[in-house]
Design brief:
Shape: elongated
Strand content: over 45%
Helix content: under 10%
Low-confidence stretches: none
Number of strands: 11
Mean pLDDT: 95
Largest sheet: 7 strands, mixed
Number of helices: 0
Radius of gyration: 15 Å
Length: about 120
Amino acid sequence: QVQLVESGGGLVQAGGSLRLSCAASNSGSIVSIVSMGWYRQAPGKQRELVASISSDSITNYADSVKGRFTISRDNAQNTVDLQMDSLKPEDTAVYYCNVKTTISVLYRTGGDFWGQGTQVTVSS
């Protein structure tokens, strides 16, 4: 079972920066972590991918955050960070850490795991 603990987030003025961190505990190592990333959900909107990073450090960013956000990962520690710079009011949302793992048919576990979410509010 994979459990995620998020930290960071908060209130910042437009143009400011925040850093989100997520630590994944993979008890028993029954499954392997394939990719780690961050999603966000603003009020009244669907959850959307912000950025993801694979185990071999291939990154993927939403067009709206390219050039402003940077995702990084420590495979040994199973942590993923999201550095958010030049924040805009439209970045305001609840941000969720996401981990995708391999599937264990034997133990019936694996797939998508989510953090509890952390609020990011950008004031204009």
